[in-house]
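In this supplementary section we document a worked example of the pipeline. Step one takes a protein sequence of length 98 as its only input; no multiple sequence alignment statistics are reported here. Step two produces a three-dimensional model, which step three serialises into structure tokens for compact storage. The input and output of this example are shown verbatim.
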Amino acid sequence: MREEVYKMNFEKTENRFYKNDDNGKMIAEVTYVPSGEDKVILDHTFVDPSLRGQGIAEELVNRVVEEMRKENKKIIPLCPYAKTLFERKPEIYSTIQA
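The serialised model returned by step three reads:
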């Protein structure tokens, strides 16, 4: 049996990626705020307890990383989750971290 990798589709609004469930309840979110011309502060990551351990928070952070790479901006990871992720995987995040 093949293991299926589930990739979540997130909605994007200004400075935010998120996902609501079928009832409209927010189940995953990452937010960031501009800091000067060339940086953003990644300040918040949330994943509903029922979805934790599936890599969704990392997916959310990676959406911000993709977006900032396109905009040639650096990320200051203030959110405890993002800070730990950046430290744990420097081969991925060192070039985007401010």
